[in-house]
Structures are given as structure tokens and as C-alpha cells.
Write a structure and sequence with these properties.
The structure holds 4 protein chains of 4 kinds.
Chain A lengths: L5 H10 L16 E7 L3 H12 L6 E4 L15 E2 L6 H14 L2 H5 L10 E5 L2 H16 L5 E4 H7 L15 E5 L3 E2 L2 H14 L3 E3 L4 E7 L2 E7 L2 E10 L5 H7 L6 E11 L9 E4 L5 E4 L5 E4 L14 H14 L7 E13 L5 E4 L5 E5 L9 H14 L13 H4 L16
Parallel strand pairs in A: 1-2, 1-11, 2-8, 4-13, 11-18
Antiparallel strand pairs in A: 3-7, 4-6, 5-6, 9-10, 10-11, 12-15, 12-16, 14-15, 17-18
Helix pairs in contact in A: 2-7, 2-10, 3-10
Chain C lengths: L2 E4 L3 E4 L4 E5 L10 H9 L7 E7 L7 E7 L5 E7 L6
Antiparallel strand pairs in C: 1-2, 3-4, 4-5, 5-6
Chain D lengths: L1 E5 L2 E5 L5 H7 L6 E2 L6 E2 L12 E4 L6 E5 L9 E4 L35 H14 L13 E14 L3 H12 L4 E4 L8 H4 L6 H13 L3 E3 L2 E6 L4 E7 L11 E15 L3 E3 L12 E3 H9 L8 E6 L3 H11 L3 E7 L13 E2 L2 E9 L2 E9 L2 E6 L2 E5 L2 E3 L2 H5 L4 E4 L4 E4 L6 E3 L22 E3 L4 E2 H9 L5 H8 L12 H12 L3 H4 L11 E2 H5 L2 H4 L10 H5 L4 E5 L2 E6 L7 H14 L2 E4 L4 E6 L3 H8 L12 E7 L5 E11 L2 E6 L4 H15 L6 E4 L4 E7 L3 H9 L9 E6 L2 E6 L8 E7 L3 H14 L3 E2 L2 H11 L32 H4 L10 E10 L7 E3 L8 E8 L6 E8 L8 E6 L4 E8 L14
Helix pairs in contact in D: 3-5, 6-7, 9-10, 9-11, 16-21, 19-20
Classes of the chains: A alpha/beta, B alpha+beta, C mainly beta, D alpha+beta.
């Protein structure tokens, strides 16, 4: 298979770009794999890649019910950061952020990771203290975080409303300069291509419809393309975790909710970084094509419909315009929605399940994209060795009933705000 | 079309009249004492001295002299003063219905929402309770803390619509 | 934005309602502790029909159970919850 | 005549012209540059599907970039500018990118620019500058955007003859009807193609609809079809860039309809051939629209390319307007087009165009396997018709394949929607396959996606239609793929060797056409929809010009500086007044609930984790509430006002959450209880009077002996009935006075007079924070952070031993009893001031073992003290730690102590 390079493109300029091969094969499923990953999103494909690359496993399949990267991997706001207050969270996401910094080279696929800064704005002294607390927690654990003054924020993002009379006046920000955005589709495609090169079978249009049990253990899956045996099975279908785990008779501490995002028509560069807020729930960045990407809160009620809600969208846009009034005359051109696993402490679940040979990676709420490399790495470790990696050990499924939740916002056991 | 007039009514004692049991018996006692029946949900009834507007399944908003109500309820309910937290805004004029559609989600333009009707809804993010006094008058019961903002919002909407 | 037929107020915009939790997550006050925590923390979460507790927070403030399909948003039933229904 | 300008040059237009019509009228053919290769582009369509003619309209805060020239009606003084070009439209340096096109194939950026992330950012800088289209305004929008609700029995979208007929019929049988048209006139297609109905019919029908109570909205686009037949309409009140009446530029309608009729028609398709993007190549119906509706003839020598009958009407219209029809290239075999009177070439498909100076010069076609060329300055193309099924699909409807029209048409829907007219039954066409070189055959004009890009994506394995779109960026431009979708599906089907319906289908999501962000935000753009809540006593505070502090949606006085004091100076003065004398503050925002009925105490013992039923009438106590998982989520006080009547207070920040929780427990968990729980947060304004002289101040105010600590009495101040609660948050003897908010001003004034009389002061939240930290009282959102149990906060001794409260089960979870939990501690500075929010570490460089949740100074003696959370903190009293804040470059050495720095024994509460 051809290595990707500028030289390859130049060569293509003289042959009509005819020398490129499919980025991944389209194999028939085998009768048995050592490990089956259910879900061909970024996390599942990354898991397969690290299983092959780091753990040397050869007989791996990724089963995707539709087309790879078609779920939440392709339906997010592409933000990458590790600026969490709680240690288990910032340790996991920081591990991932370090991987992002070399991911394009590692995969030989440009995932366009652009560390142009992820900023949380503060709108009061109380906000600034909370931001300092978060930054201090990160800095003490070796993660970059800096407070910015009002003047620094104004210089960094000139279109923010810096007026004192603003409803949410800007007093400063906490910036993680190593945070930024990446190209979401490229992450799925890059991992798929790299995993395929290492022999992983990526099987699209193959929906899992049930689990094959041998007593207490799972020994395979039923799919729309037949029964496939497996040594271990890893669920990796965030958004649909409840549904797939339900096929194995499991109930999860997860509720599926819709999270929508939107993008404006392309304009020349106006937003330099990723703008978030300590008091508001919207996040704004500008894509390389010039569209201003907007996200907000999830819909706050259960849904598997990949459709947005007008009122929720209006709320998110109102928040964005309160911060960046210059967006007023831009036009929203496209909306999309993902179905997210809202877990009951806002943190993911990666690890064993009560069913032998069955593992779970889910519960990512609306923070999964940025974790893709770390999620894949730790889940691969868990699946290959049968025990969690130190980084994902705190994210065990049984933590809720045990009382060891990792509740970043302290909002408790409801996936909505109460 | 007459221009809509939007104004705050003076503060008045308002009470929540809540029933938790024996509704039929309470209803009977109420009618005997007050001379009119407890209104159904979405309706009001009463006199200038005492008016009850029902916005909730078990709670009536009482406007006027609430002193006889506690004894009517006996052990089947309670009366609680709530008037300090509510501002009454009166919209009078022909197009109050049009103004209420601004920032709203409730069908105030429906012909069935007529005099003596009540409804609780959300307008411009504020929970608002509406009572149709007559075809050209609608009273809104608004939380005190949001009342200035809503008054401004309606005044602005009325001006734009009047044009 | 959906529309729910409130058992007390009739058809109203979803914006007047707040989703609170699923019926299967309601922990009775007298539930044994082990059951209580399992009930609180796990959900059926079906990709289909489920019973949900919503409140007409910006309307009549009443609580209700809405039976809804999570993909099509088809509402098959709404019933009132609370003290003895008053008419 | 209307005057407008384009790129600084002044032109005139006729009333009713779109900008596109006006530009064509003035002979302006070059209007824009494409996104990727900066290719010169003209006007292609006459509608919202326009991919090429994008301009920036308006000035200052009203600037609207990327406006389709076909979708703006010219008004006096309109200012339009071309975009995505430098230094000017006809000489654009960016067009050198076109030379590199062979290397810049679809997805090229995935295959290069490797190296570190910083290196990518270097390349990205240039890519970002080249991308985008227009410039966003930098000034604030001076206009407002309205959002309105509407309800109807029937909503008709599309006011063509079919839509108008449906609307009038329904209106006249008494239905509430709304009729919507995105153009600025009704039945615009009748101006393009005169039919049986005429202008008089339109006028009469519109009048009948209005007379029957129907509402007609023109210049209004149905942009979204949501759940349960909710449709959002975007109404242009003013044109882009135009100063609107009453400052309202647009209106967003949320229409809930009983039934929706879609009479949305269809969009003409282009054809794929080399250099099909050249200015001068237009869609056939668009050409006809310019000729018949606007009286503009876009060319003198026209070639028509078609696969259907409709384009012959264009030929006739052009001929009638004086243009010469050079040739009609008809893909259909003879005798199609015979007898039309034109020079028709059958079995003919376009191959390429040539041009000069951004104008069309000639067209080449393949006719029966032979190449034929004609000189022409206009090419009108009709590749068939794509029904506008967007709204039907947004509503969750499915589609059927119509083989005759080679198009998808609406099928079943789970919502109450019907499609009529051309959108349901498109014209038949002849199926044709592109034969020309794929490299310059554009299918997505704005994003410069060619057939070759589709082929490359296919070869590289991006074979699902979604992969194809994402890899090539097809359909991602501002025209949302209205012209490109079917061409791409056709090519994909060809590659797969299947019929189009088997190749796949993309989903349409809102919006149908791009929607202005300000309109989506509506009134919320100004304050994020988060209205400030105004205190009952706002005017009295404002008169003193305090420093305000946000708390949730409230703004409360933080301090009342006098004589040039800083915040810190004012707060310290105010706090000292409380410690030494007396202070008063506004506590109105606290959550308050009145709980009445025979079961009130039992109900409160479910809500509160402490006992309540033992309270005597007239007494109160501190209490706290747990979430169902056992974590503390709020605290406050509970007072027995009467035999069966209690007042419960809790935190301001948690007020709404607590109100919902109380209602949930009441209505869902305990429906049988005889209790009424009423939220009286806003009913009562609250005034706290605290300090050694508070008792004497109160005595003067109420004319009797004030209640002892944690007792309550009804009283009267300034003739107004009040409730006095003897409670303290500051650590001093203190009272909270609750009064009907509508009468609070008089009570506040009376209190202030008395406080001033004895030399006391007003105090704000900052002083309150100093006082409570020194005393060691908790605050929700600080020490009570949603992660701490009663044990962690040393509240466990107060738990109701009988259980039965919400959260009792949660507390039994095993991990909550394990060691290594964070626990509440006090911190005393040994060296330096303790930074609030700082991390607690055992030594430099170590991972934190806790943090500082609140920091202050001892009010009288000075010295930095703080409250914090520390792993196994209860067992670490006396230990030395470092409180470090790397983000602020601050640190302090601290000693772990008991979290009470002031009057731990509570002696100051005693009289």
C-alpha cells in the first residue's frame, strides 16, 4: 500500500492520482477472531490498531453496523483537550493529548490536530477562582494550563464581547495551549487504514444482533452477516451502549441522549482558538474551511434519534452570540446530532462487565472524541490482558453502586442537570 | 387598532389555595361559603372581592380576601401567602394575543382562550400565568424578579407590532 | 420540539416541560439499600419505547408519565402522577 | 430606478429585481470565485440553490457575507461586494491554486503536511486564509430578531397555484391556515411560465385567504421540520443589509400545524461536462426566469443542453426576447424536439466549454459520437428536476425512486405532512451518463468537487455516500448540495454498477437554506437567554452604588464601598462592623419553602437528613439535604412556625434544584401525604441583622424582646408584619427578618435607620464570605461540592438515626466508608496568604492531596485562614502542607487545623 506523502500527491498530479489504493480492505468475516470489537468508530478502530500494534495480536475484527466513523466520531465538534479538574480524568485525557501530538505521523494520515488553544472564559471572580483551581490541579499533575487576563483574552480573540456591560462580562480565561481541534473523519479513516495494514479485519454493514453464550461466558456474536466466534468481545458503541449491552442482558448506568452541533457558512478566519465558558454551555471554534462550529448542551432527555431540537439549538446559539456578537449575521448551514451515552457521573466507563469475556467502553457523555487515542490504548490493554490499565482502572463499571464515582461537576446521579 | 397598554397593577395579597384530600367535600363547603364553585383547571371564577384562578391541578391562585378560606379547607388543604413574589402585568388593547405570541409557545391566539380562561406557560424564558379578563384585557402573573424584564420585552414587542 | 398532551392542560409545547427521569429509576422510599442503588444507577435505556417522568414545570407544575418511542418520538400514552386527581 | 453598488461601482436596477437580475441587466457576468481553486464564477440559477454568485451585502454590523445574489432583492443604496478574491474579482491571485489542482485532489490534505502538530499549524495558517468565503462583520449587529409562535390547522409551504388553492379551500371551511412563500411575491412561477391562472387570480385568491382569517407570509422560508409537526419559518422583514422598520430584521416563526402541505416544487439539475462552471453557463429555468420575470436576456447567442422538454420553453423565451438559439443539444434520441422550430441535435451531450475574459465563447458537444462546436455567449442547461423533498425528509419521511424523472419523491411519513405538485410528481427526463473528462466536470460548484474527485474517493475505498461526501467535501458548501447530490449519487451508482436508489441516500437535516445566527438566537443574543433576576430591594441597593456579584441569575451587592475604598477594604470594614457592632445585609435570594399540613414534619424528615419532628413551635435548627446517592447537596434551616406549619430555607444557588426535588418527593414519592409545600422564595424578602448589637437593634425595631438563638417569632416592623428568625451565618448573634417582598422597602429602611443609629454598616457577600469562613460554616458550591458525604463534612452526627430520609440508602455504599476520602479541614497559614482554589501538596512537585475551597483572613486579628478538602483530613490535624497555585504563582505554607477559627464554642450566640 502506498505511503502517504507530498511526493505521492505530486506523482499523482502526473497520473491523475490513479495510483492510490483503497485505504482499507473490505474483507468477509472469518468464523472466529481472538478479539472482536463491536463498533467501527474512532475508539473501536483505535482499539483494534493498538491491539495489533502494541500487543501484537493478529486475529482481530472490528464490526460496524453502518460505515466506519459514521456515529459520534463524525458527529462532534472535534475538540481535543485535557483540562479536567479531577485527577483520573485529566490523567486519562492528558495521556491521549500527548498521543494526539504525534498521531498524524504515527498513522501516516494527517488528522490535522491543530493545537491552537482551548480556552475556558471566566465571567466573575468566582469563575476565575474555579478556573484557577482547575488549572492548579492540572499544573500540579504536569499538565499545561495558564490563566489569561482580560487584556490577554481580548488580544487572543478580538471578536469576543469584552464590554463591561455584557451579560457575561469576560474577566479572563484558563487556556490549555496544547488543546485544539482535529479533523474528526480523518481520525476514523487514519486508524482504519493503519489497523487494516496490520491485518485487522474491518467489516462494515455488519450489525451485532446478539451474543453467543457458553454458560456464563460470551464466546461470539450473532450478526447480520452471520455468527462470528470470539475469544473476547469489546463493546465500543458509545451512544448505543445501552442497546448493545442490553443484548447481553446488562443494564448500564447510562442514558442515551442527543447532542447536536452546527456549523455556519465558511468565512475568513475570525475565531482563533476553541472558546468555552465556565458559566455558559457552548463551545465555539472555526474549522479550516472557515465554518464556525458550535456545540451546546445535550438535549437533556433520552433519545436515540439522531435529530436535533429547535429550542436547544436556539439556546446554544444565543449563548454563543452573547460571547461573540459578530456571529450574528453569519448563517447556520448545517446541523448534526449524535447520540451520546450520558453516564451518571459524567465520566466514561472502560473495563470489565459482569459477563465473562465481555468488556465495555462507553459512557463518554459528550467528551469522547478527544479521548480517542487514550481510549483505544487503554481499552486495547484491557482486552489484551484481561485487566484494566492503570489509567482506566478508576473508570470501572461497578463504581456507581460502590460509591466511587468520578463526578467532575458534582451534579450527581442524574444525566440531566438536577 | 387601539394601541396595547401594558402596565403593572398595584401589589395585592395573593394566596395559594391547595387541596390535598377530599376534593368533593371541600368543593361543596367552598360553594356554600363563597357562592360560586371552585373553577376547573384553566378557568377562573369569583367576584371583585374574591377570585380564584386555577393554574394547577391541586392549587388555586386566590386574589382578594383569603381570610375565610382556611376554615373551608379544614384539614384537607392549606392556604399560603405568595403575593410578594408575584407581579401582575395588565395587557389591555385589541392585540394582546399577538404580543403574547412573541417569544412564546402557547396558543394565546386560539379563539377558545376566551374571557375566564387561564393558562400557565413560558414566555421569553419566564414562567408566566395568564388570565383572560375580557376580550381586550389579559392579566399576566409574573415572578417579581423577572417582571421588569418582561415588561420591557412586551413593550418592545408591542411597539414593533404596532408599526 | 415535541408536543405533549398534558393530562391537565391539553396539548402544550415541550418547552413547558422538563424531563426528570425514567420510571425505572424511581427509588421508592422504602426500597432496600442494595435495590435502591441498582434502581438509581441503571436504566433499561431501550432503543424503543420507555416510560419517562416529565414535569409540566412551566405550566401546571404537575408530574406525569410519558410513554415515548426514543427513535420516532411517538407518544403512546401520558398519565398523571400525584395526589388524588382533583377535578 | 434603484441605485446599488457592486465592488464599488454604481449601477441601477428595476423595482423587483434580485441582485442577480440587476447584475445581469448591467452585463455583469463575473460575480464570485470558487472556494478551493478560486475559479471565476457567474450566476447559475435564479433561486436559493445558487452555488456561485455569493456576495457580501451591507455594511457595518449589518454585513451579511455569502449572500446569494439570487436571493436578495435590490433596494435603494444596497452595497454588494464580491468575496474570496485578492486583489480584485477579475484578477485573483488565489486562482494560482487552480494550477496546482492536479496535486490538490480530493482529500489531499490527509496525505501530506506530516511532522509535529506545530508544523501542521504552519501549513494550516495558509489553508485557513485561503479558505472561507466572505468576511464576518466585526461590529455589533444593530438590529433585533424576533421569534414568534403560531398555531394552525393547515400550513401550506409554497404559494404556487397548487399551494394557494389548497390554502384557500381550507381557510374557507373555517380552518386556521398559514401560507408561506420564500419569494417576495405569490406564485412566482407564473411570471416565468404564464399559465391558466393569472395575476388577477393570484390577487383574488390571496384576498379570499386573508378574508377567511388565513395568514400569508412572503419572503419566508420553511427552514426546519421538527417533531410533532413543528415547522420553523424564517421571515425576512428587511433584505440583507437593509435598515429594517422597528429594528427587527427577521422573524423566526415556530408553527405547530395540524397538517402540513408541501408544495415546494423542484430544483433544476445541471449537467456534468468539462468547464461547466464557466460564467455564462446557467440553468435553463433560471435563464427563463431572467427573461420572462425580470426582462433580462443574459446572452445573445445561446446553446441549450437538455434531457427533457422543459428546456424548449427556455429556447422559445430567449427567441421571443430576441436572442439567437444556436443549437439545442438534446440527449434524447429523435424525434425529441422535432417540430420545435429550433436546430435540435439528438443523441447529443455537452462535452466542454471555452471562454475568454471570464465569458463564455463556445460550447462543444458529442453528437452521435462526433464532436461539434458552436460559438455562444450563453448556455442554458437542464439535466432534469430534483423534487424539494428536504422538509419531508426532515420530518422523518421516506422516499421512493421515480424512474421516469430519475428522482427521489416523497413516500410515507410518520408526521401529518403531504407533498403536492411538482415535488410529488416531477417531469420525466432521459437518463444520461456524463461522458466528458471528469477532471474539469464540476458537480459541487462552490467547493470545486469534480467527477474525478468522486472517482478518486471510490478508488480509495470511500464508498458509502457519507464517506464520499466527507472525503470530497461534496454537498458541504452553502448551497448544501442542492445541485450536487444527485450527480454524486449517479456517479456512485455507476461505479457500483447498481441503480441510484441502491447506491444510498444522504439524510436532509435542518436548515433547508442557511439561517442567520442572530435569528436563531432571537432575543437571547443579548443575554444568552439568561435573564438577570432583580432583587425586590434592587432600587435601595442601586442607590448606594455597590459592587455587584452574580450568583446564579441573581446579582447581589458584594460590598458597599465608600470614599474610594477597594473591594477588599470595604469588605473588611463591613465584616468588622458585624464582629464589633452590627451589620445588615439582603438575604432575599435564599430558597424558602412553606410546608403545611398534618404530615408536614414527616415530609420534612424525608427531605432533610436531620430530625425535624422534635422541634417545638417557635424553634428552628440547622439542617442539610442529601441526594439519593447520599451526597450532601444543600443545607439550610428549618423552623416550626405553627403546629402544622414549617419554613425551610436552603441555598440561593440550589433553589431551583431544591424546588424540583421537594415537588418530586411530594408529588411522585409521597402523593398520599397531607401536606402542602409552597415555594415562597420570592414572596419573602429577607434582611439579616448580625453583630453584638443586633439584639438591641431588633428590640428597638420590634418593640419587644427578640427571640433567643434558633427561635422564631412573628412581629411587626414599621407597621409591616414580619417573621423574625434568630439564626446566624456570620458567627454573631443575628436575626433574619422575612417580609412580604412588596412591603420590604419600608422594613429595610427602618432597619437601616436603626443600624446607622448605633454606628453599624451594610455588608455584602464578600464580608459575608469572610465571616462564614472564619466561623467555619459551609457553602453550597464550595465545601459542599456535590462529591462530599455528611461524614466527609463532619455532619454525620446530625444524621437522623431513624433513617427514612432521601439518601439514606446511598450513604450505605461501601466506597463511601473507605479511607482516602477527601474530608473537610481548616487551614491556617504559617507563611504567605492562602490562595483560594490552590492545591494542597505535601511537597513541591507532588500530586495534590486536597485543595483550598475557601480562603479569607481573620477579621479582627488578621492572618490567612481557609477551609479545604484533604485526603483523610480528619486524621491530619497539625500537619504542615503547601497550598500552591502554579497558575497564579502563589503559595503558602499551611497547617491543618479544625475548621473553626472563631468562637468554636458558639458563646456569642448566647445572650
Amino acid at each position: 500500500m502506498s505511503q502517504y506523502s507530498a511526493f505521492g500527491l505530486l506523482r499523482g498530479a502526473f497520473n491523475g492520482q490513479k495510483h492510490w489504493q483503497p485505504a482499507w480492505r473490505d474483507p468477509q468475516p472469518k468464523s472466529h477472531y481472538d478479539i472482536i470489537i463491536i463498533g467501527g468508530g474512532g475508539h473501536g478502530l483505535a482499539t483494534a490498531y493498538y491491539l495489533a500494534k502494541v500487543h501484537g495480536l493478529k486475529n482481530i475484527a472490528v464490526l460496524e453496523k453502518g460505515w466506519i466513523g459514521g456515529g459520534n466520531t463524525g458527529r462532534n465538534t472535534t475538540i481535543v483537550r485535557s483540562n479536567y479538574r479531577l485527577k483520573p480524568l485529566h490523567d486519562l485525557f492528558e495521556f491521549g493529548l500527548k498521543m494526539w501530538e504525534h498521531l498524524s505521523d504515527d498513522l501516516n494520515y494527517n488528522v490535522m490536530f491543530s493545537p491552537r488553544g482551548a480556552m475556558f472564559l471566566g465571567h466573575s471572580d468566582a469563575d476565575m477562582t474555579k478556573l484557577a483551581e482547575r488549572g492548579d490541579a492540572m499544573r500540579c499533575d504536569g499538565i499545561d494550563a495558564d490563566l489569561m487576563t482580560r487584556a490577554e483574552v481580548a488580544k487572543f480573540e478580538p471578536l469576543l464581547d469584552m464590554s463591561r456591560g455584557a451579560r457575561f462580562p469576560i474577566d479572563g480565561a484558563l487556556i490549555q495551549r496544547r488543546g485544539g481541534t482535529a479533523r474528526h473523519d480523518a481520525v476514523a479513516w487514519g486508524y482504519a487504514r493503519a489497523a487494516d495494514m496490520l491485518g485487522v479485519d474491518i467489516i462494515q454493514k455488519c450489525e451485532v444482533t446478539g451474543f453467543v453464550r457458553d454458560g456464563a461466558a460470551v464466546v461470539g456474536v450473532e450478526t447480520t452477516r452471520g455468527r462470528i466466534g470470539a475469544g473476547r468481545v469489546g463493546i465500543c458503541v458509545a451512544g448505543n451502549s445501552g442497546h448493545v449491552a442490553g443484548l447481553a442482558g446488562l443494564q448500564l448506568p447510562v442514558e442515551s441522549q442527543t447532542l447536536q452541533a452546527m456549523v455556519t457558512e465558511g468565512v475568513k478566519p475570525m475565531i482563533n482558538s476553541v472558546i468555552m465558558s465556565q458559566s455558559l454551555h457552548c463551545y465555539i471554534s472555526q474549522s479550516d474551511k472557515g465554518g464556525v462550529v458550535f456545540g451546546g448542551d445535550p438535549d437533556n432527555w433520552p433519545s436515540y434519534a439522531q435529530r436535533g431540537n429547535s429550542k436547544v439549538m436556539e439556546g446554544a446559539v444565543a449563548q454563543g452570540l452573547a460571547l461573540v456578537p459578530a456571529l450574528s449575521r453569519l448563517r447556520m448551514v448545517r446541523t448534526w446530532s449524535g447520540v451520546t451515552d450520558m453516564s451518571f457521573d459524567g465520566a466514561p466507563i472502560i473495563g470489565e462487565t459482569p459477563v465473562k469475556n465481555l468488556y465495555l467502553n462507553g459512557g463518554w457523555c459528550y467528551g469522547g472524541f478527544k479521548a480517542t487515542p487514550a481510549s483505544g490504548w487503554t481499552y486495547a490493554h484491557t482486552l489484551a490482558t484481561g485487566t484494566p490499565h492503570a489509567l482506566n482502572a478508576p473508570f470501572a463499571l461497578d463504581r456507581f453502586e460502590r460509591g466511587a464515582t468520578i463526578d467532575e461537576t458534582g451534579s450527581g446521579p442524574m444525566p440531566n442537570s438536577r | 387598532m387601539t394601541k396595547l397598554s401594558i402596565s403593572m397593577l398595584p401589589a395585592a395579597p395573593l394566596h395559594a389555595f391547595e387541596i390535598w384530600g377530599n376534593p368533593a367535600a371541600v368543593g361543596k363547603r367552598f360553594k356554600a361559603a363563597c357562592g360560586f364553585a371552585l373553577p376547573a383547571l384553566g378557568r377562573s371564577d369569583g367576584t371583585a372581592a374574591l377570585r380564584l384562578i386555577r393554574f394547577e391541578p391541586t392549587v388555586w391562585l386566590v386574589e382578594g380576601d383569603a381570610s375565610p378560606l382556611a376554615s373551608i379547607l379544614s384539614d384537607d388543604g392549606a392556604v399560603t401567602a405568595i403575593g410578594g413574589g408575584i407581579v401582575r402585568i395588565r395587557l389591555s388593547g385589541n392585540n394582546w394575543r399577538t404580543v403574547l405570541m412573541e417569544g412564546g409557545v402557547f396558543d394565546a391566539e386560539s379563539p377558545t382562550f376566551a374571557a375566564g380562561c387561564s393558562a400557565a406557560t413560558i414566555i421569553d424564558h419566564v414562567n408566566v400565568r395568564l388570565h383572560v379578563v375580557d376580550e381586550t384585557t389579559c392579566d399576566a402573573y409574573v415572578p417579581l424578579s423577572f417582571s421588569q424584564g418582561l415588561l420591557h420585552f412586551w413593550t418592545q414587542a408591542a411597539d414593533a407590532l404596532a408599526g | 420540539m415535541m408536543q405533549f398532551t398534558c393530562p391537565h392542560c391539553g396539548p402544550r409545547a415541550q418547552a413547558e416541560f422538563v424531563y426528570e427521569r425514567t420510571v425505572d429509576s424511581v427509588v421508592a422510599l422504602d426500597a432496600p439499600p442494595e435495590d435502591a442503588m441498582r434502581t438509581l444507577f441503571t436504566r433499561n435505556n431501550p432503543r424503543g419505547v420507555d416510560d419517562e417522568i416529565w414535569r409540566h414545570t412551566y405550566g401546571c407544575r404537575a408530574w406525569m408519565v410519558i410513554t415515548r418511542h426514543r427513535v420516532t418520538n411517538e407518544i403512546s400514552a401520558i398519565r398523571a402522577v400525584g395526589p388524588e386527581a382533583l377535578t | 430606478m434603484i441605485t446599488f453598488s457592486f465592488d464599488g461601482k454604481s449601477y441601477t436596477a428595476r423595482e423587483g429585481d434580485t441582485l442577480a437580475a440587476a447584475l445581469l441587466r448591467n452585463g455583469v457576468g463575473l460575480v464570485g470565485r470558487s472556494f478551493k481553486y478560486h475559479r471565476p464564477r457567474g450566476i447559475m440559477t435564479a433561486g436559493v440553490e445558487e452555488p456561485n454568485a455569493l456576495v457580501t451585502i451591507g455594511e457595518g454590523g449589518r454585513t451579511e457575507p455569502n449572500t446569494r445574489a439570487t436571493d436578495v432583492f435590490v433596494y435603494e443604496g444596497l452595497v454588494a461586494k464580491s468575496q474570496n478574491r485578492w486583489p480584485n474579482l477579475s484578477f485573483d491571485v488565489g486562482s494560482v491554486l487552480g494550477l496546482a489542482a492536479p496535486a490538490l485532489s480530493a482529500g489531499f490534505y490527509y496525505k501530506t503536511f506530516f511532522g509535529s502538530a506545530k508544523k501542521w499549524m504552519f501549513y494550516e495558517y495558509f489553508i485557513r486564509k485561503a479558505a472561507g468565503l466572505g468576511n464576518a462583520p466585526t461590529q455589533t449587529d444593530p438590529d433585533r430578531f424576533s421569534q414568534r409562535a403560531a398555531f394552525c390547522d393547515l400550513l401550506v409551504i409554497g404559494a404556487g397555484p397548487a399551494g394557494m388553492q389548497a390554502a384557500v379551500e381550507a381557510a374557507e371551511v373555517g380552518k386556521r391556515v398559514i401560507l408561506v412563500e420564500q419569494d417576495n411575491i405569490l406564485a412566482p412561477s407564473l411570471l416565468r411560465d404564464p399559465q391558466a391562472q393569472d395575476a388577477a387570480w393570484i390577487k383574488a385568491t390571496a384576498e379570499r385567504i386573508r378574508a377567511a382569517g388565513g395568514r400569508i407570509l412572503t419572503r419566508t422560508t420553511a427552514s426546519g421540520y421538527w417533531e410533532h409537526d413543528l415547522v420553523t419559518l424564517t421571515q425576512r422583514i428587511a433584505e440583507p443589509g437593509q435598515i429594517p422598520p422597528h429594528n427587527v430584521a427577521q422573524c423566526l416563526w415556530h408553527v405547530r400545524a395540524g397538517h402540513v402541505i408541501l408544495a415546494t416544487g423542484s430544483i433544476e439539475r445541471p449537467m456534468a461536462f468539462a468547464h461547466n462552471d464557466r460564467p455564462g453557463v446557467m440553468l435553463s429555468q433560471a435563464v427563463r426566469t431572467y427573461v420572462q420575470r425580470f426582462g433580462v436576456v443574459p446572452g445573445k447567442r445561446a446553446v441549450i443542453a437538455t434531457n427533457n422538454d422543459d428546456a424548449y420553453k427556455t429556447a422559445q423565451a430567449l427567441k421571443d426576447a430576441g436572442a439567437h438559439i444556436v443549437a439545442i443539444i438534446d440527449a434524447r434520441p429523435a424525434p425529441a424536439g422535432a417540430g420545435s422550430g429550433f436546430r435540435v441535435y439528438n443523441n447529443a451531450v455537452p462535452l466542454s466549454t471555452k471562454g475568454a475574459r471570464h465569458c463564455l465563447k463556445s460550447v462543444t458537444a458529442l453528437v452521435d459520437d462526433k464532436t461539434v462546436s458552436w460559438d455562444a455567449d450563453l448556455m442554458a442547461v437542464s439535466g432534469g428536476f430534483t423534487p424539494v423533498v428536504h422538509l419531508h425528509m426532515q420530518a422523518g419521511g421516506t422516499l421512493d425512486w421515480n424512474e421516469h424523472a430519475q428522482a427521489f419523491v416523497p413516500a410515507a411519513s410518520r408526521q401529518n405532512v403531504t407533498t403536492i405538485g411538482g415535488a410529488a410528481d416531477p417531469q420525466a427526463i432521459f437518463k444520461m451518463v456524463p461522458v466528458s473528462s471528469p477532471k474539469k466536470s464540476f458537480i459541487d460548484f462552490q467547493n470545486d468537487v469534480t467527477l474525478a474527485d468522486v472517482d478518486l474517493a471510490w478508488a480509495e475505498g470511500y464508498r458509502s455516500v457519507e464517506h464520499l461526501k466527507r472525503y470530497t467535501t461534496l454537498g458541504m458548501a452553502t448551497d448544501q448540495g442542492k445541485l450536487s447530490n444527485m450527480a454524486a449519487l449517479g456517479r456512485l451508482a455507476e461505479k457500483q454498477g447498481v441503480a441510484i436508489p441502491e447506491a444510498g441516500l444522504t439524510t436532509f437535516r435542518p436548515p433547508y437554506t442557511p439561517v442567520t445566527m442572530g435569528l436563531i438566537a432571537g432575543a437571547g443574543a443579548k443575554d444568552a437567554g439568561a435573564h438577570i433576576r432583580r432583587l425586590a430591594l434592587y432600587d435601595l441597593h442601586a442607590a448606594k452604588n455597590p459592587i455587584w456579584q452574580p450568583l446564579g441569575y441573581w446579582f447581589r451587592p458584594r460590598a458597599y464601598p465608600t470614599g474610594g475604598e477597594t473591594l477588599a477594604q470595604a469588605a473588611l470594614r463591613e465584616a468588622k462592623a458585624v464582629r464589633n457592632n452590627v451589620g445588615m445585609t439582603d438575604v432575599s435570594t435564599l430558597a424558602k419553602f412553606e410546608i403545611s399540613g398534618p404530615d408536614a414534619a414527616a415530609f420534612l424528615e424525608i427531605i432533610c437528613a436531620t430530625t425535624v419532628s422534635k422541634l417545638a413551635v417557635g424553634r428552628g435548627r440547622y439542617t442539610f439535604m442529601l441526594r439519593e446517592d447520599g451526597v450532601v447537596f444543600d443545607d439550610g434551616t428549618v423552623w416550626r412556625l405553627d403546629e402544622n406549619r414549617y419554613l425551610l430555607t436552603s441555598s440561593t444557588g440550589g433553589a431551583d434544584r431544591m424546588a424540583t426535588h421537594i415537588s418530586y418527593v411530594r408529588q411522585v414519592l409521597c402523593p398520599q401525604m397531607r401536606v402542602s409545600a409552597v415555594n415562597v422564595q420570592e414572596h419573602y424578602a429577607g434582611i439579616a441583622v448580625a453583630g453584638p448589637k443586633a439584639k438591641s437593634v431588633l428590640a428597638t425595631l420590634i418593640g419587644e424582646e427578640p427571640p433567643r438563638h434558633m427561635s422564631t417569632v412573628p412581629a411587626s416592623i414599621a407597621g409591616v408584619p414580619v417573621i423574625i428568625l434568630a439564626a446566624s451565618y456570620s458567627g454573631e448573634r443575628a436575626f433574619e427578618i422575612y417580609v412580604d417582598a412588596s412591603q420590604a422597602e419600608a422594613v429595610w429602611a427602618a432597619c437601616e435607620t436603626q443600624v446607622n443609629e448605633v454606628g453599624g454598616a451594610l455588608y455584602g457577600l464578600e464580608a459575608m464570605e469572610f465571616l462564614r469562613i472564619e466561623k467555619g460554616h459551609l457553602v453550597v458550591g464550595g465545601e459542599v461540592d456535590g462529591r462530599m458525604t455528611p461524614h466527609d463534612l463532619a455532619l454525620d452526627k446530625m444524621l437522623n438515626k431513624a433513617g427514612g430520609y432521601v439518601g439514606a440508602s446511598g450513604l450505605a455504599r461501601p466506597a463511601l466508608a473507605e479511607t482516602r476520602r477527601r474530608q473537610l479541614v481548616g487551614l491556617e497559614a504559617i507563611e504567605g496568604d492562602i490562595p483560594e482554589g490552590a492545591m494542597l501538596v505535601t511537597q513541591e512537585g507532588a500530586s495534590p492531596v486536597g485543595h483550598v475551597s475557601a480562603a479569607a483572613f481573620r477579621i479582627i486579628e488578621g492572618g490567612s485562614v481557609a477551609l479545604g478538602q484533604l485526603t483523610d483530613g480528619f486524621a491530619r490535624h497539625g500537619e504542615e502542607l503547601i497550598a500552591t497555585s502554579p497558575t497564579r504563582g502563589q503559595k503558602a505554607r499551611v497547617r491543618v487545623v479544625v475548621p473553626h477559627f472563631y468562637d468554636a464554642a458558639g458563646e456569642r450566640y448566647r445572650d
